[in-house]
């Protein structure tokens, strides 16, 4: 349960995420808790709380404090506002139609937001946090137009050397191909967040989810249909890929600029670098911020 | 093996506790702290050895760090410093933060000769004392930071930096 509240002491408006700990095995807590026994502070919220506490950046949501009483956990964080997904869906179709003035504004807004998205991701990567759930829903827009990153439930600190991690991360539509193809315990790291950020970018521009698959295979097909079936799989992914990949239709890569109408060439170039199959050749958040797309003054024009 | 470890923990955690701290009380407070720290570290290392097979990450470093930080903080009541649940709770939190599978609390309670309820109470106290700041810099994270500082002209370093 999430409620908005105001501190009587400081007058600060905060958001409280209240979690009731399940005494018995039920709902989503069951995967962490052993049969019936009370295992103390739930692992997922413990991780979320301490990762948020470890962050201190204007583009990451600030966790003020945590209380833990009688099996009830309350996470107090700063109040930000609407998330990007809701914001996009609140805009009318006119905003996403070509050659309209409003569309021009959306393109500017996309650039403005994307810069902040990448700043937030770059900060998290620089302190070693793997986000694993980058999507428009996890970016909140504050009243002054600052974007705040949230949704740390699936995040974790990176391991050195790389360890196989769980596959069940990142909302399917934003999941990078190396996670889908990597088997039960794929080895992946920072580039998965960049892939998700690329999908987020496209969604901000077009107002539609870029790859909307209904299953893991469906998701792969959607990706291959747009970006082309990788010709030499093991070369493209740097790991073993399942053999069924050979049986898929051989699609040719489509033009991203056609899909993302109106986006300037630099933007298309940035997006294509973010959506590369090979995780090591995918652009990093820091390099992406240096991309020509973000050069120059791009302050937001009011309409 | 478990029974053996159990005995050892029992003797250091409980039996040794009174003897050593009684001696330490006669001296200045610094050495009291030192002896508590020595016992706590001892217990954590023993727990680490028992669960070694399941542990991959920085758990040992993290739990020792939590223990030390709680010990020197003003908010932790002095009577909690000496109880056996305190280092055990530090270890328990560290595994939760870092590991894929966390130890079962009832087994941990048996190993440290206490009850699960006591451990949970202690866990809460430790978490509040640390105010949920559970990610100190450890050696392996430091290595990652050092690599990101290295000049990115070399291809292999860049590849490493890509993966942190």
UniProtKB/TrEMBL annotation, chain A:
Coiled coil: none annotated. It comes from Guillardia theta (strain CCMP2712). One of its GO terms (molecular function) is ATP binding. Residues 1-294 form the Protein kinase domain. InterPro entries: CDK (IPR050108), Kinase-like_dom_sf (IPR011009), Prot_kinase_dom (IPR000719). GO terms for cellular component: cyclin-dependent protein kinase holoenzyme complex; cytoplasm; nucleus. Pfam families: Pkinase. This is cyclin-dependent kinase. SMART domains: S_TKc. Its EC number is 2.7.11.22. GO terms for biological process: G1/S transition of mitotic cell cycle; regulation of G2/M transition of mitotic cell cycle; regulation of gene expression; signal transduction. Keywords: ATP-binding, Kinase, Nucleotide-binding, Serine/threonine-protein kinase, Transferase.
